[in-house]
Design goal:
This protein has a single domain, classed as CBS-domain (Roll). The protein is 50% helix and 18% strand. The protein is α+β, with helices and mostly antiparallel strands. The protein has 7 helices and 5 strands. The longest helix has 24 residues. The strands form 2 sheets. Strands 1-2-3 form a 3-stranded mixed β-sheet. Strands 4-5 form a two-stranded antiparallel sheet.
Length: 152
């Protein structure tokens, strides 16, 4: 299974923010949309990632307030990325290795989407459920003569 399989199911909705936007506006956008991340874009290219992790760190650093903080000052400016062709097993290793919950998906320099740890976990569980159903159906439909030969 590849990242493109997750994006096909998830859809192509993208939420972005500019680096010179107020952090308060970005947080409001994340809250309104019930999302945990925004891709930071400048001049059509990804320049960072803003997740609730960076937001919480900024709020703690500023004594509990966001104030006039800009997205640029708190974003992850070297986010982990993948491509639509990246295998899900590799994505799991990447996310676990960097404690990343969100991964922008790029084709060359074009943003194709964002996948979350939840998206990856759901895809793996759905795949395993499908395999289990197929195996159970196969065992249930086992030819009678083969069952008799195995018990002899």
């Amino acid at each position: 299974m590849k990242v493109s399989d997750i994006l096909r199911v998830k859809g192509g909705t993208l939420f972005t923010v500019q680096p010179d936007s107020a952090l308060s506006e970005a947080v409001a956008s994340m809250s309104e949309r019930d999302i945990g991340s925004l891709v930071v874009m400048e001049h059509g290219e990804i320049v960072g990632m803003l997740t609730f992790r960076e937001v919480i760190q900024a709020v703690v650093k500023n004594g509990g307030v966001i104030g006039t903080t800009l997205v640029r000052s708190v974003m992850d400016d070297h986010p982990l990325t993948c491509t639509p062709e990246t295998e899900i097993d590799e994505v799991r290793r990447m996310m676990l290795g960097r404690h990343a919950r969100y991964l922008p998906v790029l084709t060359q320099r074009t943003l194709m989407g964002v996948i979350s740890f939840y998206d990856v976990a759901k895809a793996v569980v759905d795949s395993q459920d499908f395999e289990n159903r197929m195996l159970k159906a196969y065992i249930r439909d086992w030819p009678v003569e083969d069952r008799d030969e195995q018990t002899s």
